[in-house]
Amino acid sequence: MYNAWENVLAEIEQKISPSNFSTWFQDTSLLSTEDGHIIIGVKNSFYIKQLRSKFLDIITEALKNSSITVKDVDFEVKSTTKPKVRPREISAIIDTPTFVKPTKKTTSSNNGLNSKYTLENFIVGSNNDVAVAAAKSIIDAPGTRYNPFFLYGGPGLGKTHLIQAIGNELLKRNPDFKILYTPISHFYSDFVDAIRNGKGREFNRKFEKLDCLIIDDFQFISGKEKSRDEFFNIFNDLYQLNKQIIITSDRLPSQIKDIEERLVTRLTWAGAFDIQLPKFEDKCAILKSKAELMGADIEQEAIEYIAENVNTNIRDLEGELSSILLMSEVRGLTPWELIQNGAATINKSSKIRPATSKQIVDKVAKFYELTPKELCSKTRVSHIKTARQIAMFLLSKELSMSTTKIANEVGVKDHTTVMHGIKKIENDLKLNFALRDQIDAIKEKIYG
Ligand code: ADP
Ligand code: MG
To answer: What's the pLDDT at 161?
Structure first.
């Protein structure tokens, strides 16, 4: 029985978000399958309501796919002694990519689309309205104005959701459409497999026939020359036939390592659309809608508290909401009560121990292969100057140091130079994703 349930869970895991999977399916078990009456064991009654309203179809389908006869499905409160999913602290139920297993073999449809991503459940806000307008125009007239559709933005901001929704909607309107969604990494591994097995031709043919090709996480294209050439051959062929091409990336093509200039231009021929961090009002709207979808009650104050305190991305927003709702049920208090009595505080950042200004200067210098003395010298050599500005930026953001103090710390003349340096980095960060990665990496070194 336990093995059978493991299969079912593996199926379910492919179909729902990691945060939903870890929140709702942790500690579930299969208690009985007698005569097709399925009984699933859960930890407490809150789960029953949620599982039934949100996941019944998915569970039923997964049971059937695991060759279990299903007449009806019921739930009973009883925790398993052998949890399938490693139990995690409630406060740690946050969507992380590490929960995603390789999905290739078990995806049930082979177009890569997941029906849970729809336009209806994608909240439009000031952070994504332009991208959504373009998406709608593609749905109305694929292969025309926004081709290729290049969508970029940081992790967890809804890129996969939006492009999957485009694919699903296109398919709904044009049932004969041939659509393929694939992360670029799967494109690679499939290509390499095909070549190894002498099936290069078939691999090509699969793409030739498409009406719409959707490529996710294109930033991982760096390196791997042969697959890259193959990708661009396919890209050109489809483009010439006016077939819709959709590509996401966490950065602009010009910031992806090793790709040629002519490809950079081609990818953004029809413009580059971005999804930004949601503003406060956007975050509230998303949280409200997610809570509704989960059938949960949550006070406006609690929504605002979460919106104010999660400043990373929408994935984390969802994670915090799930964990507060879960805790609310377990403790028998409303979300706002929990927040007010301090039981549900949000980890604002990973600043476990405060850094010192020396640490910051040292780590920035080391990262750029300079000595702290070089970094704090008067030289205007461009790369050293940039490193110095990054140090100023971090001293200001991480330690809230005054610009005068920062000037002393990094050996510059006065506080206006510091203000200018910080502003420069802030501006660069808006578009330069490589810089953002570097600063993240430095922060990791500082706090890690
Ligand atoms: P990305 O691909 O940019 O890393 P995802 O598309 O995986 O991000 O989004 C992360 C999570 O946030 C998903 O569960 C997604 O459904 C949700 N999400 C993102 N943007 C929105 C939105 N505008 N409305 C509703 N849910 C969203
Ligand atoms: Mg994604």
So the answer is: 97
